[in-house]
Amino acid sequence: MPDSMIEQLQRDMECEGLLECFHGLKQLDKECFRVLVDSDEPLTIDEVAEAVDRERSTAYRSIQRLLKAGFIQKEQVNYDQGGYYHVYSPTDPSQIADDMQRLLNDWYAKMGQLIQEFEDKYEQADERPVAVDG
Predict the structure, then answer these.
(1) pLDDT over threshold 80, residue 132
(2) Domain that holds residue 82
(3) Is the pTM of this model over 0.70?
(4) Which of 44, 64, 98, 126 has its CA 20 to 30 A from that of 117?
(5) Of 64, 52, 83, 56, which Cα lies nearest the Cα of 25?
(6) Position 38 confidence tier, pLDDT thresholds 50, 70, 90
């Protein structure tokens, strides 16, 4: 079960915790992302799998989660004789930060709306007439 907001605020946060907090990424996803960030060139799924010591299919699922979250980019490389393969590289950190800021702003607006709905609902309950026995 997810931690309450109070528990999350009391816990020490690290920047990598944002990956989990915002996108629900797993430890392996963070490891794959770190491998791509540390690489001087884009990597294939096989290269990522080898670097994190996991099966290709496991690394592939992690890479797909990172793609969906917008943390990495996929590029197609064509062979001269025909055919192709994909390589992956990290998205610019400032773009990722901007996306997370947008998500946070959206979440903040949604929470503000829910708090207002809560106040409206229970404020109306306070304004109901009280039956008087007479």
Answers:
(1) no
(2) 1-91
(3) no
(4) 98
(5) 64
(6) very high
